Amino acid sequence: MTERVAIIDLGSNSARLIVMHIYHNGSYNLVYHQKEAIRLSEGMTGTNRLEQAAMNRAIATLRMFTHMCELFEVNKILAVTTAAVRTSENGTDFLRMVHRNTRIPLQVISGEEEARLGYIGVLNTLDVPDALIFDLGGGSTELTLVRNRKIEHSISMPFGAVTMTERFGTQNKVSEEELTDLYNFIMRQLEQVPWLDRLNIPLIGIGGTMRNVAKMDQRVRNYPFSKVHNYKVGPLSFSELWRMLVEKTADQRRKIPGLSSERADIIIAGSTIIKCLLNVTKGTQLIASGCGLREGLFFQYYRHLQHQEEIIPDILLHSARNMLMFYKGDINHAEHVTQLAVAMFEGWQQLHNLGEREKILLQVAALLHDIGITINYYDHARHSSYLVENARLFGLTHREQMLCAIIAGWHNGPSAKFTRNRLYTEFLDANDWDMARKLALILGLAECLDTTQMRLIPQVEAFAQNKRAHLRLITDEDASIERKAVEKHRKWFKKEFPFDLSIE
């Protein structure tokens, strides 16, 4: 039975709904996402009360979300709200309105819990051992210091993009005096947190401000890949973006490529918070995370359902296996091909001179090389490549994801069509293409060694000696079909390596 889980995040600036499906085999995927700008914290500065208009916008949005949950036949709703309701004097009244009008089980979470959920969402989707996670919302900013993938410190700061915009009036063109006042206020707040000083580690940003910073930087650089998650922005590049933003009016900012028009009036305050964080921590780079509180809520629920710890030990292997199960791939065949490919990679180390990271790319491509059969058996390697290229694979850089897509797509032989794809040509250099060809060859050989998908060859030994590459098939079965399939790749092998292939 498929479990349909809705997750609602009612923030100070926007409200989001995601619907996740969890299938009987344990795999899961996102099936729906909706975002609405509600500006719930608008007008709170000075009164500390939610305005009636803001509450009405939130209620209307939650009614819409309720309707979508009914359409998707959701059987579990996880709904939270954050700083605006948490800090307002009339938050309890608002919760009564929500219950009366929607029946959504909306829960107010503490700043500490908000930071923890963001940490779960980030750590299960980004492979970064040490970082400062900042969740920059409309009414607060949660900071979480992570060392060795564990929380060391966390704090909720009482400022966000909306509240700082209202307090310092930075909606339109800002004067140097207004900018200085905003900057100094945030710096004073951050300098009161001693563990933020000179961390010299990456800063991982959750929330719309960081996503928009990443998108703007991508447009400036003419970046060929639209994926924001795990996109990196250097401190110098960010400073140039920030300076460009503060010199423009709100109308001019709305025309900036990559910047959402809905965020044009609050981006000055939001980006200045990031600038202050970089200055206090001496952050080495900014990393955009497309996953945060909502994903944290999902992983907390899902991992408890599976009786597993909330933090996934190997996020790349987990997301690759989840993808394999979602597309109903032959898990035994995929794992056996992976095992054989790794054995050949390790045995022929002196031929390819590739390292541990390249071995990981081979493993991912091997696990997913046949998922394209879901679309069509014919040309399934090409279909697999497309699925890998566009998958929610976590723990890979954008370049590495492209390489995995090529390796999977070439497991029946190299194809020139990849070299005509702008994504690939702008990401990869000559060494990358050479590496992809070699790994695709190894994957192709491994696929041949399980042609019947009966695992007739449980093990292989691969080694190089006297200008000859040896591949010893260890089996007590009749593996004549597999042997014949491997023989067909001699020519391909000779093209990639200056050695003859001896199959024994």
UniProtKB/TrEMBL annotation:
SUPFAM superfamilies: Actin-like ATPase domain, HD-domain/PDEase-like. It comes from Anaerospora hongkongensis. Residues 319-477 form the Ppx/GppA phosphatase C-terminal domain. It comes from the Bacteria. Residues 25-300 form the Ppx/GppA phosphatase N-terminal domain. This is Chaperone protein DnaK. PANTHER family: EXOPOLYPHOSPHATASE, RETROGRADE REGULATION PROTEIN 2. Keywords: Hydrolase, Stress response. One of its GO terms (biological process) is regulation of transcription by RNA polymerase II. The keyword Hydrolase applies. Gene3D superfamilies: 3.30.420.40, Exopolyphosphatase. Domain 2, Hypothetical protein af1432. Belongs to the heat shock protein 70 family. Belongs to the GppA/Ppx family. GO terms for molecular function: hydrolase activity. It holds the Pfam family Ppx-GppA_III. Signal peptide: none annotated.
